[in-house]
């Protein structure tokens, strides 16, 4: 009986070795989202501001940063909640304080006074926005090349104005925003992709005003999507809107369906911009 040398079997042995699947290492389990929020103080030369920074502490990657500007009531739980919701989506979000010293209003007269103090001095308003941007960008998890802004009511008008001023923003989403902006754009200045989500039943935004606004933005070359939601009144994202509306006789109303739909539109905007 002829005995073959082991070397004659090497090709077969090597083929078997190469086709035997390697033992798979167990995949590293992804950590669940754990949003944390903290008070942050920042300032201009003349004003100290109290903001709120929210992010997923289990994610140490670089990711886009989002500025959140409050309604005319001031920096309150609504804007903080929105910052936390953005953090759940994977962003680092800073709910800013545009009035300074954390001031909030509990009456429309006070809210109007605070709002006008900002709108009437846009140089100071931009300085406060600059200080907020610097604070946001200083966070170690923020990708400073990917910055967006979200605003509600007064805050919506502010983020649109900052986009119109030519700030280096990738995306801006304005919810139930006033359209009589203190800053309107020159041609080619607007860098951000823009979403405006307003209520069709908001008596403070006329159809004519919305049409004029869209024409101006289009004429400036801005990339904007404007949505007018049927049945939605002013402050449709704020769960406390109905109570405030009833208390002060204002056309305010929360609309859960429109709140959700407009939030989804914002997510689409961000997915295309970042």
Structural class estimated from helices and strands:
alpha/beta
- Give me the number of helical elements: 8
Shape: globular
- The SSE order reads HEEEHEHHEHEEHEHH
**Alpha carbon gap, first and last residue:** 73 Å
| Unreliable runs | 1-22
Helix proportion? 25-40%
How many whole angstroms does the radius of gyration measure? 25 Å
- Lateral arrangement of strands in the main beta sheet: 1-2-4-3-5-6-7-8
Structural description of this entry:
There is one protein chain. The chain is α/β, with parallel strands linked by helices. The protein contains eight helices and eight strands; from the N terminus they run H-E-E-E-H-E-H-H-E-H-E-E-H-E-H-H. The chain has an eight-stranded mixed β-sheet, with helices on both faces. The longest helix is centred in the last third of the chain and has 18 residues, at 256-273. The protein is globular. The relative contact order is 0.11.
List keywords for this structure.
single chain; 274 residues; alpha/beta; 8-stranded mixed beta sheet; 8 helices
Topology record:
Layout: H1 10-19, E1 35-43, E2 48-56, E3 63-69, H2 77-88, E4 92-95, H3 108-119, H4 122-137, E5 142-152, H5 154-164, E6 171-175, E7 193-199, H6 207-219, E8 223-229, H7 241-248, H8 256-273
Parallel strand pairs: 3-4, 3-5, 5-6, 6-7, 7-8
Antiparallel strand pairs: 1-2, 2-4
Can you give me a brief rundown of this structure?
By secondary structure, the chain is of the alpha/beta class.
């Amino acid at each position: 009986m002829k005995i073959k040398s082991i070397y004659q079997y090497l090709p077969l042995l090597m083929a078997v070795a190469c086709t035997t699947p390697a033992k798979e290492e167990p995949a590293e389990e992804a950590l669940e989202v754990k949003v944390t929020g903290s008070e942050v103080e920042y300032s201009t030369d003349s004003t100290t501001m109290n903001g709120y920074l929210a992010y997923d502490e289990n994610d140490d990657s670089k990711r886009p940063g989002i500025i959140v500007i409050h309604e005319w009531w001031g920096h309150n739980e609504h804007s903080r909640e929105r910052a936390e919701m953005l953090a759940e989506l994977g962003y680092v979000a800073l709910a800013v304080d545009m009035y300074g010293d954390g001031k909030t209003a509990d009456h429309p007269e006070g809210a109007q006074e605070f709002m006008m103090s900002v709108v009437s001095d846009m140089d100071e308003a931009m300085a406060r926005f600059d200080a907020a941007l610097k604070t946001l960008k200083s966070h170690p998890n923020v990708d400073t090349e990917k910055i967006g802004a979200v605003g509600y009511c007064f805050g919506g008008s502010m983020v649109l104005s900052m986009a119109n001023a030519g700030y280096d923003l990738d995306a801006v989403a304005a919810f139930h925003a006033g359209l009589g902006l203190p800053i309107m754009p020159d041609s080619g200045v607007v860098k951000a992709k823009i979403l405006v989500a307003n209520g069709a039943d908001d008596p403070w935004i006329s159809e004519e005003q919305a049409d004029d606004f869209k024409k101006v933005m289009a004429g400036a070359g801005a990339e904007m999507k404007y949505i007018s939601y049927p049945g939605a009144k002013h402050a449709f994202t704020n769960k406390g809107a109905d109570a405030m509306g009833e208390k002060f006789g204002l056309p305010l109303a929360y609309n859960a369906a429109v709140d959700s739909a407009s939030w989804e539109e914002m997510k689409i905007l961000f997915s295309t911009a970042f």
